[in-house]
């Protein structure tokens, strides 16, 4: 894993990331950001060549990648150069892929500016683009040389985006166990203030947890698959509803608990069903306090294009079945049975589709 550096300072809406000069040489850096996150660039880097990519998911496509390659060519970015990406997960996913493929790979580092990117997207070495209407179909595993986490950037992040990041942090807590989960539960239900020690503790717990899983399984052949919790249904929801990634993950998390409790009950184990539903209730309470969508129907209602409930679910099923986690007629699914008790198992696509049609 790359070294993650922390730079906690007073909350600021612009130029921040103290300590970047110690990690990247302003004379050799090429900056990638979007028009909002370029404001975080420290003054020492203001003369660096730069490329501004579209904001949000619109950055993760071949057209934006081509613009980056053209800018690299124009500015003469060579093997001795270094790409520094400032932004959320969309910027780091694209920039990491561009740097990994330019001249067969140049050095790169991330300054994540959203909570989601701090705890998840900038951590773990997955870079990539969307293609053909599907999430992250093109990509590579390649670790940034550094990640500089400065929670001061979060001052200007809209509460909804902060909530989206917290959904990914909560996913880490569900997988790791009670201590990690209850750190987030207490923080969110207690009205976590920005810039607080508890927020910093949540960020550090998440980064530490993801780092340990990725170190154990860098190429997602084993335990790293647990990090897909909430993402199988979540990615389908994200693609069809246009919801932000973390909001779609919130829907996917609750749906995953629903699937597991349905399986337990249909297998005659009502005690397990009840226990899973109790855990799901704790997760739902946290996501609700964050004002995130909780159900497929919530997702449909927030989608920009009006679709009937049935058509929405069929579209989600179709998007899900094109997911990378598919294995023939099954999908490798992260099944949450409790806090600290998530397993990876194949689930039949028919069963999954049936559940998505009936889920709330
Ligand atoms: N590579 C991975 O392992 C991984 C993991 C999780 C998610 N992701 C990807 O991350 C992407 C989502 O990233 P994201 O949620 O970080 O958001 P984002 O990069 O899509 O940015 C969302 C918006 O927030 C703005 N923004 C960024 N920082 C800001 C700040 N500090 N203050 C105010 N506005 C700010 C941006 O300009 C943009 O408009 C998805 O494409 C998802 O697939 C990747």
What features would you describe in this structure?
With 360 residues, the protein is of the alpha/beta class. It has 2 domains: 3-157, 3-Layer(aba) Sandwich (Rossmann fold); 163-358, Dehydroquinate synthase-like, alpha domain (Up-down Bundle), CATH 1.20.1090.10. Helix content is 48%, strand content 18%. The strands form 3 sheets. It has a 6-stranded parallel β-sheet with strand order 1-8-5-4-2-3, covered by helices on one side. The protein has a 3-stranded antiparallel β-sheet with strand order 9-10-11. Strand 4, helix 3 and strand 5 form a beta-alpha-beta unit. Helix 3 packs across helix 4 (115-121) and helix 12 packs antiparallel against helix 13 (349-358). The two termini are 39 Å apart. Bound molecules: nicotinamide-adenine-dinucleotide. Nicotinamide-adenine-dinucleotide binds at residues 34, 36-37, 55-57, 60, 87-91, 93, 113-114, 116-117, 120-121, 124, 126, 135, 153-154, 156-157, 161, 164, 244-246.
